[in-house]
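Incident log, structure service

09:12 report received: a user says their structure output differs between two submissions of the same chain.
09:20 pulled the input from the user's history:
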Amino acid sequence: MPATRTTPRHRRTIAAVAVLPLLAVVLGACGYGSDSEKDDKVAPAANGEKIGGLDEVKIGYFANITHATALVGLQEGLIQKELGGTKIKPQVFNAGPSEIEALNAGAIDIGWIGPSPSINGYTKSKGENLRIISGSASGGVSLVVNPDKIKSLDDLEGKRIATPQLGNTQDVALLNYLSEKGLKVDADTGKGDVTVIRQDNKQIPASFEAGSLDGAWVPEPTASKLVAGGGSVLLDEKKLWEDGKFVITNVIVSQKFLEEHPDVVEAVLRGSVKTNVWINANPDEAKAAANAKLKADSGAALPPEVIDPAWKNVDITDDPLAATLSESSEHAVKAGLLEDPLLDGIYDLSLLNKVLKAEGKPAIDDAGLGVK
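09:34 re-ran on a clean worker, output below:
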């Protein structure tokens, strides 16, 4: 594999991402993420033979509609069913960099996560910490603004725009977009022609309502929450991508866990594929299941004016849309967050394609970025 090169600026950026607080959704837990075992009373329990004798598999995800596969698969027991007696231990995160920290520390084994943290984590470890093993979702990201302060895309200069976390997928997308418009922002500090404010997804709506933000580049359901609170969608990120498709969520696994427990990983992927089939065949029931899981994780379900538009804005897919991951890496470079990102070998879709073949579905391509 080609070696990565780091500049002092790159090292500072990676260090900053590495030491960021673990901004997990607060459910009264500590550590890398919130332990979601409190919803065991509604989720089917582990039952039957343990796969490979493994007691549990630790799975991370976000309380976002862009992570619908995880939300629905856990709520309906579709993933647990494939794991038999091997129990799922779920953890909820706010943004990707903290989930990568958890993966590196062994706090999770498998995770639903965005492309930018996947690229950053893989590059930082010189290709030794993770593999992308499946897709999950496309779309579901918007730039929502206060229409009284920002009326067009030419009004962004001098404004305060939020993203969920330094180095997360939306942060990279915003920085790249501003760069393409000729607006300069220091990636580390967020200061420049536009002030980029990194803030927890669950805090952004309150800050927006209080007037301390002029807009936010955020995933669903945060985007729809802002719209319900008086915001206006200035840009749907789908419009920036060919055919309106881009990876927003994929599935990663610790390389160590993949090597030691491929049968468990395959079982999780079977559950993921079957969940995606069920979601696309039963959109209304799946939306209700996702909302029930959000309520179990956060204590409150989303109202119809938020969940309905958020759900429609996300496309569920097994395809990781590998070509768009490559383009996302170019965005991270332009944003000043990475130099020479490592992509060779980032994918291992062998188990996914095995599962898809068994389901009578065509194989998915890794755009030449798979394990050789």
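09:41 both user submissions now match this output. Likely a transient worker issue. Closing.
09:42 reviewer note: The first helix runs from residue 8 to 18. The mean pLDDT is 89.
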